[in-house]
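Can't attach files on this board, so I'm pasting raw text. These are the components:
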Amino acid sequence: MHVVSSVTAPLLLALQEAATEGAQAPTSPLESLRQLVLTEGFGPILRAALIVVLGFPIVLALSRALRRWVAGVDSQQRGMIAGKLFFYVGAAVLVVWFLDELGFGIAPLLGAAGIMGIALGFAAQTSVSNIISGFFLMAEQPFMVDDIIQIGTTVGRVQSIDMLSVKLRTFDNKFVRIPNESIIKTEVTNITRYPIRRLDVAVGVAYKEDVEHVRRVLLDVASENPLCLMEPEPVVLFDAYGESALNFSFRVWATRENWLELKNTIHEDIKGRFDEEGIEIPFPHRTLYVGSATEPFPIRIAGDGGEEPGAGGRDVSAETEPDPGERPG
Amino acid sequence: MSGTPAEQDAPWGSHELRPGAATSIEIGPLTLWARSRAGEIWLAHASGDWASTDVEPPREPPSDEEGWVRWPVPEGTGGLRLSPVFPPRTLVVKPELSFRLLPRSGARIYVRVPLWARVEATGGEEDVTLTEVPSVVLSDTWWGEFTDGELCYWLPTSARRSVGPDVFAPHRAVCPLDLSNRSEDELEVEKIALRVAHLSVFRTEQGLWADVTRVRYRGEKEGSDIDVAGRAPEEAGSGARRVTPPRTPLTKSFRTRTFSRLRTLSGLGGI
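---
Top answer:
Structure tokens for the assembled complex are below.
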């Protein structure tokens, strides 16, 4: 009640004074309005309105200017943080100033805010957790604006790191919002933190190929591709004896900007050189060996006459033992 | 020396463009085609490849429009000027056979650096730089650590100890490097960072030269002091004249890491 009366009292007083003056000496409506504006009681309302109408746009414009300036002299990330801090502090000052102009006492308000804060804290645990996580993210800086990161299965470029969430733009142009709390709890991979990246190319060649020859050809391919860094030097590792191929791991380096282009070109280069050198890249194949204890597999050559199975040769399926798990009949 | 001075200088300098017709300019393995049409200059080029020197460069201009780049130029432009410039990045020079410098000793080596051609349009109110193209495409390499460093070009060299007539070519400049080991340890020279941004190109009757780079190795932790002579080397003779100033003039010596050993940057970088 006290709050309501403190707001309305000056206004009522001003109107009353204006009415009294009007009764004493008849004046024009314009003069009445001027006197109303100039009266002591109307001043705070006018100032409060000015704070809202002018103050907030000014703070917003200044925060944007600060953001641009810091981004120019430092980084996008720091520009964003500086702009946001300026805006939040400026907005808080304006709110306090606005309330003060209207006659609200700051001390009771802060007390009420404390009690409300506890109530709101219980009600908005998730939001508060996100805000605190946001501060941790800003302080720890596992990634910056414009970095490319992977969180879970989502890969994208960081657009902004806000109080509640991080916004990503994926490469198929989707907007993804990830709450700060989730990021703090999960593994984050920053793909573009370091200036160079390694590309691992799995290469399989036929068993008949000379391993040393393959190694030499792959290193040649690396040296002939201008995007492939010569230092750290390319490496060919003989990885494993695969089912159908000798498996190599061909490891080359590129700058993060050229990594994707290298990935695209190096595969073409390998295929081209292998074709030139006659190195076979085998398709998966399997040789069945039935062992010496069993009879050789019967072979039937199908003729053009469209003979029925079993007529010209032995039907293999008829002679094989049934699978133990298979139900007869 | 191969060829007369005029022949040595021929690819560089000014070239007049005939309207509508393609002009072909060869500088070593680099072939540059240019044509002037309707207030524009069109350029196409084919550079050499450091890894396969035996490949014959194409002698015919690209048949379709895809291989060409065009620039609207000021009225009156009717020619090109080609200037030899050093590559726009530091070169990591890798001697084919590494060598060792004993403590308190030094050596001069000569490195042949493939140049770039700076192409300027001339004849208008003022000359305008159109582009720079490499005579030889060099491979990228990294100088520094995995987390921080500098993108450079890779240049294998025989690190000659003397200059003979066979080292000169229209597309290459000879860079003398004075290396001295001021430390108490033996220095194994595996790779050298040659900061060509600070070098000028000088022309003599023999060919193109760079000024002498002096590198004084102080130790593994201390790094190396580097300075550039700023004038043609004595071997170039008195007739040498500067044809291109350095991209970044060096006013005083600076200290940086110039030598790298194999252990410094492991090839695997972790399995």
